[in-house]
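Narrative of activities, Objective 1.

The group set out to show that a structural description can be obtained from nothing but a protein's sequence at a throughput compatible with the screening campaign. Below is one input-output pair from the validation batch, recorded exactly as produced.
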Amino acid sequence: MGDLTNPASAISVDELVVTRGRKAVLHGLSCCVEAGAVTGLLGPSGCGKTTLMRAIVGVQIVQSGTVHVLGRPAGDPGLRARVGYVTQAPSVYADLTVRQNVWYFARVAGADSSTVDRVIERVGLVDEADQLVHDLSGGQHSRASLACALVGAPDVLVLDEPTVGLDPVIRAELWDFFHELAAGGATLLVSSHVMDEATRCDRLLLMREGDIIADDTPDAIRAATGTADLEQAFLRLIRAEASE
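Output recorded for this entry:
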């Protein structure tokens, strides 16, 4: 059960049930996301990661259970300026340049002009800053969306598959940036279906078929499953669950 009174938890999810049609997507899921850390939400495509993230940012209809972010119910108006969300699909205006998009979101967030150039630089889009988003590659689209989410310096940043389609150098730079944000006090929840990204996280939520099957540090998960490989650890957890 999520501990809503724990000050170390920026996000608390308690017995969350989400259905789509007649099918349950999340089955009474409970978890916490530690404040000031990079937490990875890892699992295969279709396991419910995006549904959980949508519930956390308050845009998912839920059947039952509760979600609290920074001590408030998910979707509370008081969270709008404190929570950033980057979806898998780019959420920027294709007919504007990268800079114009970031400027727009900066105005909405009340950020100053110096922040615009800084976040564009941090996501590696300086050379593309004055290009129309329509003309960018898929990976550049994703980075433009990330810049727009970062410009307001949110306390909580929810990133759905932010490194998909990026080259290894940009991926490494972004993960370094995520940890810099966490070191500055931000809380990051980052989803991925690529297990090698799990090693870059402070803590992991391993998800399968609508449930959390592990919630711990990478080292603790390795130790508990007796393997140095996190993909093998994930498989052993699945087998152990199936045998119960």
